[in-house]
Amino acid sequence: MMDIPLTVTSIMRYGTSLFGDKEVVTCAGPEPARRRSYAQAGVRAARLASALRGIGVDGDQRVGTFMWNNADHLEAYLAVPSMGAVLHTLNIRLSADQVGYIATHAGDYAVIVDESLVPLFAPVLEHAADIKHVIVTGDPARLGDHESALGGPGRAVHSYEELLAAAAPSFAWPAIDERSAAAMCYTSGTTGLPKGVAYSHRSTYLHSMGPCMSNAMALCERDRVLPVVPMFHANAWGLAYAALLAGADLVMPDKFMIPAAITALIETETVTLGAGVPTIWGGMLAHLRAAGGDISSLRLLVCGGSALPESMMRAYKAEFGVTMLHAWGMTELSPLGSVAHPPVGVTAEEEWEYRASQGRLFCTVEGRLTGDNGAVLPSDGKAVGELEVRGPWITGSYYKDPAPEKFHDGWLRTGDVGTLDTGGFIRLTDRAKDVIKSGGEWISSMELENLLMGHPSVAEAAVIGVPDEKWGERPLAAVVPVEGASLTTEELRAFLAERVPKWQVPERWAFIAEVPKTSVGKFSKVRMREAYQRGEYAVIEAR
Ligand code: AMP
Q1: How many domains does the chain have?
Q2: Whole domain around residue 131: which residue ranges?
Q3: Which residues line ligand 1 (CB under 6 A)?
């Protein structure tokens, strides 16, 4: 067969020509949304590539982005890899020194910054001396203000729009080896320094077809896709490129990430598929219940990044007729690993059990479980071990960081613990480092959290293991009550006792205002453990 390389360039060519009249919509809050056709985005991507070449971007140089989800970011997604350079999406929610460390480690030469993020990006520069060019989106008239914040010796500041206006409208896209790097992303690094993952053109192309599969999200031309998951969090789960392949429109939230704005965007833009972490959809659910809203255009709400409580899935279905699809993945997996469609032939009640699982492995993702000594365990749905995966869109190494402990005979160690069944369904119980071992038995923090979040008066619940004289370790449940609700530990203990073995019910409870979150919106157990150690939780002992 013909050996045609699988590249981002071909995704761009296909999407911006065959689906040139499709659009990328960028939310502008109270102002009318900005609209750009894929054909226009394609021309602007060519101009961007010309402009980047003009300021010296060459070879596989890294071009960073410090941006929200919007049309300009999509242009960078198209232009940078297709010109042979490497797109490096920087996480805008990390501290300035962390972003600086990551940009320096990756070797970012130029960074495109959203105008609204200039104040956040300016302090990064003192930790990232190698950045030579900063390109700011938005109105060129304001460039003068940004120059003073971002300029410095050996570093130029440009207006994105001025660069594009002055650049050639076409670009001689080079032939690219499909195994060369297209993009990179750093893991959120809850412990230790973040690690860089470099995605190849080939892995990106294959992964972009993932959401289009009917056993996954069945993206198609009729869809209008809202990636609430940031474009800096593992490529917005592949949805930007997948939308171009499927000819689906993209609806981008930009900086308007609050539940009211997301709900309004779904309604006015008739979004068919949204994707985000549970905290996003939990927030929207609370908003819908309090203020109402029409989300009937949705055919699917994809939810991953941390465990999706079954109660949330049931609530969306029962109250709004909307189906949620649970997905599991990791930055290292581009990131899609599995999606939880129930298998054919199970009962309606069993369907819920499958939907609540982390789902069935994608066709290109192989999985296995290993025990304490690295021995492979049976995939029988019963044995509990660490999940290991391998496949063509899974990283085989980290950038400039060998990290041998993360790999095992050609498999990636995910650090996730759970079961795997013969049908390829994953059921996670914990992150390896969050496992609670009580008197030699494991207690799943994820299970307790998901059950607690099914209680009508619980807004959020997170469980950590804390030292216990008798059992070694016991769970501590930190609960955020729904506003105005009065909750007692007796009530919560009784609620859990009906659902898990009695010995798993926590004796230690804390009512807190908010569960601390990581930069990508997940519960931060590290920060919870620190808060507990500092004595910040008013722990109630209940037996
Ligand atoms: P990140 O690389 O930041 O996307 O984090 C990946 C990690 O998030 C995984 O290794 C899991 O621990 C967690 N994760 C992702 N999706 C899920 C899910 N559906 N259920 C439970 N944990 C998840």
Answers
A1: 3
A2: 8-21+33-199
A3: 187-188, 234, 304-307, 326-331, 335, 358, 414-416, 428, 431, 520
Strand spans (E) along 203-280: 224-227, 249-252, 273-276
For residues 52 and 110, is the Cβ–Cβ distance under 8 A?
Answer: yes
Phi, psi (degrees; rounded to nearest 5) at 287: -65, -45
Q: What is the CATH number of the domain that holds 300?
A: 3.40.50.12780
Torsions phi, psi for 103 (to 5 deg): -65, -35
State whether 462 and 409 are in the same domain: no
Decide if 383 is inside a domain. Answer: yes
Tens digits of residue pLDDT in 102-144: 999 999 999 999 999 999 999 999 999 999 999 999 999 999 9
Tell whether the model's pLDDT for residue 475 goes beyond 80: yes
Last residue of a domain, one of 431, 464, 485: 431
Ligand 1: nearest atom to the Cα of 415: 10
Give the type of residue at 235.
Answer: N
DSSP code for 267:
H
Burial class (CB in 10 A: 0-12, 13-18, 19+), 120: middle
Ligand 1 centre distance from Cα of residue 328 (Å): 6
Does 90 share its domain with 14? yes
CA-based R_g, the chain, Å: 23
Do the domain assignments include residue 379? yes
Helix%, strand%, coil% for the chain, nearest 5? 35, 25, 40
| Pair of tokens at residue 268 | 């006015």
Does the pLDDT of residue 498 top 80, yes or no?
A: yes
From the list 16, 26, 187, 204, the catalytic residue is 187
Residues 124 and 261 in one domain: no
pTM higher than the cut 0.85: yes
